[in-house]
Amino acid sequence: MSASLSSIDTPALLLEPGRMDANIARMRTHLAALGVQMRPHVKTSKSIDATRRLFDNGTGSITVSTLREARYFFEHGLTDILYGVAIAPNRFAQAAELIRAGARLKLVLDSAETAALLADYARTHAQSFDVLLEIDCDGHRSGLPPTSPLIVEIARTLRAGGIDVQGVMTHAGNSYDSRSTDDILRYARQERDAVVVAAQGLRDAGFAAPIVSVGSTPTALFADDLTGVTEVRAGVFVFFDLVMAGLGVCRQTDIAVSVLTSVIGHQPEKGWTIVDAGWMALSRDRGTAAQAVDQGYGVVCDVDGKPLDDLIVIGANQEHGIVARRDHATQHAHGPHLPVGTPLRILPNHACATSAQHAGYHVLDGQRVTDYWPRISGW
Q1: Is residue 95 part of a domain?
Q2: pLDDT by residue (tens digit) across 252-279?
Q3: Which residues is 37 bridged to in the sheet?
């Protein structure tokens, strides 16, 4: 297919594959130098077309955030899959079905209660599972403290059900709150140390724990020593976004996705331009609000992707976006007059959240759309 941007209904999700490929090459080169495997988190794109670009031969080890993703990618030939969310008991049967179909599915848990339930399910159904224990490296969200005696207790509970723990995993979520690259590097070392300590505790208790898995885009790209780690899971690096740019992990010119929108009206006395991309197209994510520069709901660019006169989306209703100058709230500054029908592009705060608002990617070559890559949704 080949079509001009002007022929696309707005709002629409755009993807620049050249930027995406450069982002992937950067991550692959960095991790190869550190001697670790890349197990990318494909929740960012949820697209087989984008995911195939991550690997030389179009296939490799991946991380997913839903079992629907796991099935989708398995059906497209990717079989080594880590389901990176703590497994809920109502998902045991779905996971078992995928394993019986041939998927090398790995589950995650961090609860003695979940472990007992999974072990009972495994015994009752004569079903084996591969399990990683989630380790808390920074108090951000989930996981077991690296030296918790529960780690070995849970591993023993699972073994009693015929399940040998395959290793440990963690996610340095607090790296997203970093104020400097030194902060990111500190979180990267903390992330590494937590899982290495936890894995050694398992080995000392008689468990092989061959997998030691870490993952976040900031720590993956700034890590300088991953001794003891076997794989890295990161996801948003494929597209990057304004949060990553605010952290200094990338430049705005590295961001590979944007939302095409059209001007639909004005409020001249307020200095507002109204566009047809609200939070249903951009998401409600305000991840830059706590950073040094608040980007509102996204940075406004011209149709070529060049930022315009310090314009951001300052407000978002369901189908309406409000565009104004960044300093509008304090100075009532007026931006340029953008006639009704003017096409604009919005860079996202969070590429995963914004992409999730759309059914697929309009793939660009300059201002020509050369392909359309569908994406999946749901759980």
Answers
A1: yes
A2: 999 999 999 999 999 999 999 999 999 9
A3: 231
